[in-house]
Amino acid sequence: RIVLRYDYNNIIPVMSHIDAPSPTKRYRGGFSSSICASLFEDPHRRKDCCSLACCGVLAGDRSRYLLTNQLPPPLWRRLLVYIALPAGLYVADRIVMRNIREEVIVEECHDAFPDDGSGPFLGAFNSSKIHDDQSLYQDVENASIAHVVLSFSFYLVTLFLLIRAAANRFKFRNQVIAHLKQKSLEESGLNESDDIHTIIEANALLHKNDTRQATKICGFYRSPDDIINHSVQSDDDNILSTDEQNSGDLCTCLWSALSKMFCGICCGCWCQCFGMCATAQEEREIAALVPQEKLLIDYITFQPYKEYFHSQHLLRTEKNGNLIAHIRALSALSSQLMKMSIIFLAALTLYACTNIDHHFTLPNMVLVFATLFQSFFILYFVHWNWHRFDLSLDTVIKCFASGFVFSTSTAIVVEILVSFVVYFVTGLLGVIALVFEVGNLDMSDPQTFIPALIRENAWLGVLAMFLNAFVVAATTEELSKYFGWFMVETPESLDEKDLNDMMEGADYIPSDMDQTGSTEVDPLISPNSRHSTVLYQRGLNSKGVGITVGMVSTALGFSCCENLKYVFSSTDLSTELITLLARSIFPVHALAAALQSIRVCQRDLEGDTNMGLGRVLIPALLLHGCFDFFLMVAPVIISVRHAGDIVGGGDDSTYIDRYNTYLGACDTYNAVDDGIWKPKGKGNRNENVDEVDTMISGISFGLSTLSVIIGCIYYFVQSRKQKQRLDLLESDNRSNII
Questions:
Q1: DSSP β-bridge partners for residue 270
Q2: How far apart are the first and last CA of the chain?
Q3: Of 94-103, 245-254, 290-299, 316-325, which gets the smallest average pLDDT?
Q4: Per-residue pLDDT reduced to its tens digit, 289-311
Q5: Full DSSP string of 74-126
Q6: Spacing of C-alpha 11 from chain mean position
Q7: For residue 422, how many other CB atoms are within 10 A of its CB?
């Protein structure tokens, strides 16, 4: 009898003659496998990570180019429309809001600390007296109107761009389904007929709503259904058995539990944002539609690997340490990244010299270069000085850019979401503790009740810092750095067989070939090896060092962007400098990435199949979490010790504290006369208490330093052991070959 079956990719139903049914799983929306296939199922599947970066824009561009040869708009236009325009509106709105706040604060400071020396009048702060000044009130009102206009424009432009992107994703998804159907018909050997066309049209209508849900800005995509799908054989490689789905390390199990709890069980669907899951699925499907050699291209520029890898390999084999030669051997993508960075820094320097924004002047620009120098200084020794021939400069630039842009942006978004969960959990625990402990405390006197309540629940503050350090910061950032490195695909990430197959029969094409097709050779590369046949092979230790350098480069890009964010979170130049120095003492991110690389090498080079993502991250999580926790918990302990200060009432010591706080804030805006108004005594904190606080801070800093030292020792010991194992493994491989 004639029944319907799905082909090996589960794309469309086709006709076949069978006698026995077998249960399989049908995926909605025309997808060949689960739209939310876990990132942790296959440690070698890099494409899924790319769908998370920039909401899958770059991955979608690559898939569209491979399938239709359609080039995206020029990079400068996309940066202008999709980044510069919304960012410009947002920054302008923030500047307007900051000016409003500054005008109000400056006026309050003038009222509280008059230039004639009378006062101080601390009641001027947070009072309605500011509205009595009609001229100032009119300025604030005009600025508020500008704020509304800019905010509305920002949200309108952002919404328009998101809707436009969703429409493009939906259109491309239909193109992918059409190509998949065509491929399935060709492989089935069926001729086109009215019956087949009817099946195809019905299938398209069936998938239309699901496809739109998968590609829209935000939506809910129903989970796959288990159905009886009659088939000759169960040959869908993407369907996992129950045991395979339940297997995995801690990371995989936690992800599976959370996903089933919040999606599969609660509402029977998957939450979709910006079509990222659909983009990842499309990249897996594109691999079945285009030749393998066509997939070996860079993102953004779509330059084939074989156009530039040969010259980079020759630099390694000839031990050519000339920096100019390495720069000339860069891919088009790395060259664009370097040029864009130089142009951006030059434009930012000009902006700082104009003094348009008095919060960002030439000294602030010097701090920008100092922050960049800190990362480049470490990178110089880690890569160029010690291991320039184990990993190409091209790959280092790509990894650094991935960490700077993709890892940082992903970490910021995920940290915000995870923070909400942490705050909810700690807040709920706080309410429960309050209910149980209120009856045991004397509530008649607030002077003793509130401090006692704070001291009794000091554990809650410690727990909040623990979750913030190990979950919000360490877990999120280490995952972001790992995936930031993992998503960077270069020729050096291919195995040697694929690499030699790619370069087999390929003539050497100079890496600096211009768009007109000029084949001017690089004089810095040996003429005897330009057209020579080379066996692309590297030792295991060289591969391991390359993995370490790549992951450290990604971490340095991440830490560089994070340092810039923290340095310029303050408007005070001295505070920015202190922040930079404090964050430059210990390169924790780079060390944590090096710890990750040890276990990545165990998985990828030594063949340890039990080394899942959770085991890869554990040493880095412990180092990063301990370092942050010891620094975070000290302020909590100090605050608990001074719990009585918050209910000091109107005594002199509390008044002095308020006076110094307001005066310091006004001095930041240069709104007081320093010759008249001076800070007063220590207020509530006497010298004895300050010494205790200093001791607590010192112990906290010492424990953080100790965690870094232990991390360094652990890395060097494990690195030495791994080098010995790789040497032994390589010698065994050579013996087997002989």
A1: 221
A2: 57
A3: 245-254
A4: 888 888 899 998 999 998 999 89
A5: PHHHHIIIIIIHHHHHHHHHHHHHHHHHHHHHHHHHHHHS-TTS----GGGTT
A6: 33
A7: 17
